[in-house]
Amino acid sequence: MLANPRHVKNLPGRKTDVSDAAWLAQLGAHGLVRGSFVPPEPIRQLRDLTRMRTTIIRERTREIQRLEKLMEDTGVKLSSVATEMHGVSARIMLDALVAGERDPEVLANMAKGRLRNKIPELTEALTGRFSEHHAFLVQIQLDLIDQRATAIEEITSRIEVMMEPFREARDLMSTIPGISTKVADVIIAETGADMSRFPTAGHLASWAGVCPGSNESAGRVKSTCTRPGNAYLKGALGVAALSASRSHDTYYAAKYRRIASRRGPVKAIVAIEHAMLITVWNMLQTGESFKEPGGDYYSKRNPEKAKRRAVDQLRNLGYTVTLEPTAA
Question: Per residue of the chain (328 residues), what is the pLDDT tens digit?
Fold first, then answer.
């Protein structure tokens, strides 16, 4: 039986290493130790793949950052003009630099798409002291980035094959703003997509570590920080929550702004993660797709309060407000 140490830490009994193990075994034999969630073998294999993909994506990001740092050493400020150091135009210019091309104007004219509108800025940014030593190091970094990209593609292909039984669940989750296919893959791999394991949506949120903590003693609240949960699941939910908070005219974006104005952006992101996981639990339980409440959800729920808030804001700015209802 796999048990959470937090659940057995406060059990009474002997506390030396050997006797503690025997005592826990005796408690488990009598059903006094609660087993942790262990998904079936297919889900565990899928989890291994999604976690490895996440790890390699992070490694590729670090390699790209090392490449950018190396280019800073050469005086070439390509990242100050090109949005992505691993984009198509940037890669063509880097390959040309490695091959021996040093003319900034020639390099700048290799730009593709909208980046061609910045050719003068590119010419200035590509003026530096790029040497053969730097060419050798850049080629090493580019090879490492390519190796990571190839590994990510292979793992993604394997995930697509193993995701076939969970295709419907992934399609449902992908209807939620901010949740991409990769985020849905992680949620399925970490939770198993079987919501019967969790009696309520609150149990799932607590297990994932995206709900406020409860640490109270003698009527004194010590901490309400979120508990350490599943790092991979929380990371994926963080990406989804950040994406949803930047969306336009959506419920999650309105909820983020509403909480961030009072409690700050960090707590607002955690609140969006919690709301998303609650939505996932309900959708997988009912099989219904996401129904967008809209960015004006809170205004419609309490129009008088929204009206008073807008009037107060205008008055604080020094305006005299007169309200007249529009014609029906």
Answer: 888 777 776 666 666 666 777 878 888 888 888 888 888 899 999 999 999 999 999 999 999 999 999 999 999 999 889 888 888 999 999 999 999 999 999 999 999 988 999 999 999 999 989 999 999 999 999 999 999 999 999 999 999 999 999 999 999 999 999 999 999 999 999 998 889 889 999 999 988 988 877 777 777 777 777 877 888 999 999 999 999 999 998 999 999 999 999 999 999 999 999 999 999 999 999 988 899 999 888 888 888 888 888 888 888 998 888 888 876 5
**Chain centroid to CA 38: how far?**
24
Q: Using alpha carbons only, how large is the chain's radius of gyration in Å?
A: 27
pTM of the complete model beyond 0.90: no
Question: From the centroid of its chain, how far is CA 95?
Answer: 32
Output DSSP code: residue 79: G
- Smallest CA-to-CA distance from 156 within 185, 177, 191, 190 is with 185
**36 is written with which tokens?**
């942790």
Distance, in Å, from the CA atom of 183 to the CA atom of 177, rounded to the nearest integer, reads 11
Query: Other CB atoms closer than 10 Å to residue 276's CB: what's the count?
Result: 25
Give the SS3 label for residue 45: helix
Distance of CA 156 to the CA centre of its chain: 17
The amino acid at residue 23 is W
Q: Are 196 and 187 in contact (CB under 8 A)?
A: no
DSSP state, residue 219? T
